[in-house]
Specification:
12% strand
Length: 598
C-alpha cells in the first residue's frame, strides 16, 4: 500500500522561489508572516498529515461509514484523529481572532489543506465544510450568530455543512422546494429534504451546524427566491452547549463509488428551527461567499489524488521487473529491468508529475489571489486580484479535477493487473477523484461560467489581462536559452487562445447553443494554457537557479526537463480542443432525440 509523503520540496520551491510568498504576505496585510513561519506550518502540517491522517485513508475506504437508526458512525480511528486535529487547532488558521481563530492568510490554510486532503480526502471533508460555514457566518451572520456559532466552529468542537441539493434539484438549485415559515423571535421552521450532504450526520463532534437553502412564503420562483438559514442539529442552550434536539434527521447514507469514509447523507428537516443568514431571498449570494475558496479546495482534491497516484506509481515502477529496456539491459544480473525504463511507463509517470506540479502551481496562484482581493494595501491591486481570481476559479476547479482523474487513472495502468486489485490501493485514488468533477459546481457549470460570464461577459477583458501576463513572461524568458523555445511556443498558443474566444463570441451572437457546445473544450484549452504559463515560469526560475550555481542541481534540472515534456506532450492538446470548438454545435444537435433509442 503506497505511503504518503508531503511534497515539501516542491511546495517550498513554489512558495519561496516562484511566488515569493513572504513578500506577497507583506503586501497583503500579513507582514508578520515570514518565510520561516510558512515553513513551520508546512513542516508541522506535513508531520500531522503523514502520521495522523494518512494511515486512515485505506482503512477508512475499506470499512466505510455505518448508519443505524438515524445515527452515523465513522470508520475506526476517525474520532481519535479528529480529536487530534481539534487539539492542534488546524481548523482555525485563517479565522477571525475575535472568535478564536489565528488570523493567518487564507492561502496558508489552503496550503495545509492540500496536504490534508491528499493524506485522506474522506477524513478531510469533515473539516472542509466547517471552514465554508465559518466564512459565510463571518461575512453574513448576525452578531448573535457569530458569538454563538463561530467559536465552536473555529475550534472544531462543532462542524458545518452546506445543504443545497434536493432529490429533484441537483445543480439547478432554482427549483428547490424546501420551505421556511416564520415562527416569531427571528426564527423559522424549515421543512424539506436535502440529499448528498457531506458529513450531514456523524460522531466526530458535539453538534452540526447546517447551512440550508430554502424558500420563504413570499419567495419568487427561481434562484432569486432562495434564502439561507442556519439550522443546528442541537439548539444551543443558555451556556452555549448543545441543548435540545432540532428537527433534523438522517434518513440514510449513500453507498458511493468512492470517498467511503465520508458519510454522504439524506437529511430530513421536519419542522426544524432555523435562523436567517443574510437578507431574505439573498441566499445564493451569501452562499457564494465561500465558493471561491471551496472551488480551489475541491480542485486540490483532484490534485491530491494525482499526487497520491504519482507517488505510488513511481515507487512501483522502480521496483517492478518486466522485460528489458529498449536499448539493452539496465540490470543485467536480474531477469528483467524495472518498468520505469520503458517509454510508455515514462509517458504516464511524466504526465502524472507534470500534472501534479503544474496544478499545484495553479492552485497556489489562485489561492494567493484570495489574499490580494481581501487584504492588499492598494485598492487597485485588490480589484485586479479579485478579477484575476474570478477568471482563475473555474479553470482551477475544472483543470485540477479533470487532470487529477487522468493521473489517478494512469496510476492503475502503471501497476497493470495489480492496479486493478484493491489491495494495492491505486483504485481508491481514481474512485475518490471521480466525484471532484461533479461537486461544488460540475465542470460543465465551471466551463459555462468561464466562457459565458468571465470571458464573453467581460467582452474578453479578463482573458486579455491573463494573456498579457503570459506575453510579459514570454518577453522576460525569451533570452533564457534553457526555456526560450518554450516561450515561443506559449506565445503562439496564447495568441490562438485569444483568437479562439473571438471566434466563439461571433458564433454565440447567432446561436446561444454555441456557448454550451464550446464551453468544456474552452475550459480545457484554458487549463492547459494556464499550466503552460506556470511551467514556463517554473522552468525559468529553475534555469536561473542553475546559472547562479544552486546546490540542488538535480531538482532544478528535473524541473526544466518536466517543463519540456509538458510543452512537447501535453500543451499540444490545445489544438484538439480548438478543432472541436471550431466544429460548432451542429454536430452535437443534429441527431434527433429518438435516434438515441436502440
Amino acid at each position: 500500500m503506497p505511503e504518503y509523503k508531503a511534497p515539501l520540496r516542491d511546495m517550498r520551491f513554489l512558495l519561496h522561489e516562484v511566488f515569493d510568498i513572504a513578500d506577497h504576505y507583506r503586501r497583503t496585510g500579513y507582514p508578520e508572516v515570514g518565510a520561516e513561519d510558512v515553513d513551520a506550518v508546512l513542516s508541522e502540517g506535513a508531520k500531522f498529515c503523514e502520521e495522523v491522517i494518512a494511515p486512515l485513508n485505506a482503512s477508512g475506504d475499506a470499512e466505510g461509514c455505518h448508519w443505524e437508526g438515524g445515527k452515523v458512525t465513522t470508520p475506526k480511528g476517525y474520532r481519535e484523529a479528529y480529536a487530534a486535529y481539534r487539539e492542534a487547532q488546524w481548523g482555525s488558521i485563517s479565522s477571525d481572532p475575535e472568535y478564536g481563530g489565528q488570523g493567518l492568510p487564507q492561502s496558508l490554510e489552503l496550503f495545509f489543506n492540500e496536504m490534508a486532503v491528499t493524506a485522506s480526502t474522506s477524513f478531510r471533508l469533515a473539516s472542509g465544510l466547517s471552514m465554508g460555514a465559518v466564512h459565510v457566518l463571518e461575512q453574513h451572520g448576525t452578531d448573535a450568530q457569530k458569538r454563538t456559532y463561530l467559536p465552536k466552529l473555529i475550534s472544531s468542537e462543532w462542524t458545518g455543512t452546506m445543504c443545497l441539493t434536493e432529490p429533484h434539484a441537483g445543480s439547478d438549485v432554482g427549483i428547490l422546494t424546501t420551505s421556511a415559515t416564520p415562527d416569531g423571535d427571528d426564527a423559522y421552521r424549515i421543512q424539506g429534504t436535502k440529499i448528498f450532504i457531506t458529513y450531514g450526520e456523524h460522531d466526530l463532534a458535539d453538534n452540526i451546524v447546517h447551512l440550508v437553502l430554502a424558500r420563504l412564503p413570499d419567495a419568487a420562483r427561481g434562484a432569486k427566491g432562495i434564502s439561507l438559514f442556519l439550522v443546528p442539529k442541537f439548539l444551543p442552550g443558555p451556556d452555549g452547549s448543545p441543548g435540545e434536539p432540532n428537527g433534523v434527521h438522517c434518513a440514510s447514507i449513500e453507498h458511493k463509488l468512492g470517498i467511503h469514509g465520508s458519510p454522504t447523507c439524506v437529511l430530513n428537516f421536519d419542522n426544524a428551527k432555523g435562523f436567517l443568514v443574510g437578507p431574505p431571498h439573498g441566499g445564493l449570494r451569501c452562499m457564494f461567499t465561500m465558493m471561491n475558496y471551496a472551488r480551489i479546495d475541491v480542485g486540490m482534491h483532484g490534485l491530491g489524488q494525482a499526487e497520491r497516484a504519482f507517488q505510488g506509481s513511481v515507487a512501483y515502477a522502480r521496483e517492478r521487473l518486466q522485460f528489458r529496456a529498449p536499448d539493452g539491459p539496465v540490470l543485467p544480473d536480474k531477469r528483467a529491468d524495472p518498468i520505469i525504463v520503458h517509454p510508455d511507463v515514462r509517458r504516464m509517470l511524466l504526465t502524472q508529475k507534470a500534472v501534479s506540479e503544474g496544478c499545484r502551481a495553479l492552485s497556489y496562484l489562485a489561492a494567493m489571489q484570495l489574499d490580494v482581493e481581501h487584504r492588499h494595501e492598494d485598492a487597485d491591486a485588490r480589484q485586479a486580484g479579485g478579477e484575476l481570481l474570478a477568471f482563475l476559479i473555474p479553470i482551477t476547479k475544472g483543470m485540477l479535477t479533470e487532470a487529477g482523474f487522468e493521473a489517478a487513472n494512469s496510476g492503475i495502468q502503471v501497476f497493470g493487473g495489480y492496479g486493478y486489485i484493491r489491495e494495492t490501493g491505486m483504485d481508491q485514488y481514481m474512485r475518490d477523484c471521480r466525484i471532484t468533477s461533479i461537486y461544488e459546481g460540475t465542470n460543465a457549470i465551471q466551463a459555462n461560467d468561464l466562457l459565458g460570464r468571465k470571458v464573453l461577459g467581460s467582452d474578453g477583458a479578463l482573458l486579455r489581462r491573463f494573456g498579457a501576463l503570459i506575453d510579459e513572461l514570454c518577453d522576460a524568458t525569451q533570452g533564457n536559452s534553457q526555456v526560450a523555445p518554450l516561450s515561443k511556443q506559449l506565445r503562439a498558443v496564447n495568441a490562438d487562445w485569444q483568437a479562439l474566444a473571438l471566434r466563439i463570441g461571433g458564433r454565440v451572437a447567432d446561436s446561444k447553443a454555441e456557448l454550451g457546445a464550446a464551453a468544456f473544450d474552452f475550459l480545457m484549452y484554458s487549463g492547459y494554457t494556464a499550466l503552460g504559463y506556470l511551467w514556463l515560469r517554473m522552468g525559468h526560475v529553475a534555469a536561473t537557479r542553475l546559472a547562479e550555481g544552486a546546490a540542488d542541481r538535480a531538482f532544478y534540472e528535473a524541473k526544466i526537463k518536466t517543463a519540456r515534456f509538458y510543452f512537447a506532450r501535453l500543451l499540444p492538446r490545445t489544438a484538439a480542443h480548438s478543432a472541436a470548438i471550431d466544429s460548432g454545435a451542429d454536430n452535437l444537435l443534429a441527431l434527433a432525440e429518438s435516434d438515441f433509442i436502440l
